[in-house]
Description:
Blueprint: H1 16-49
Amino acid sequence: MTFATDAPSADSGPGFLAFVAFFALAVALWFLMRNMNARMRRMSYRQQAAGRGKDDPQADGSPTDRSGSAEATDAGGDSGGGDGGGGD
Length: 88
């Protein structure tokens, strides 16, 4: 009885394509982190320019929509809409 000899050996690795995929993911992560840091820095500068501290809220705290009416928002805090029954 003969066994197949094409079993993977101990010296074979994931290969070149695995390296390319990992390198592409690393480069994408670097660009995402760079973009996030720039956005966070820009947000911090805008807060300082508005005279707010780091822990102060972004808005004045009144619930308003884009039209400016406070009645348009849900006072109960339920953003799901409907009867609040949940399921089906």
